[in-house]
């Protein structure tokens, strides 16, 4: 399954729990917060000042 910037963090972590480490390393330390699970990758990146295109590319590498 290809990861898109419109994917919700909760959906991403349910289908690809191994990707949590990449998100944490990028600076998203709020993965346990219930509200963050309903955010899209794009929304979370905007809040944390992360380049969403680079993060999605990294998430899709493996």
TrEMBL record:
It holds the Pfam family DUF1858. Residues 3-56 form the DUF1858 domain. This is DUF1858 domain-containing protein. PANTHER family: BSL7085 PROTEIN (PTHR39341), DUF1858 DOMAIN-CONTAINING PROTEIN (PTHR39341:SF1). It comes from the Bacteria.
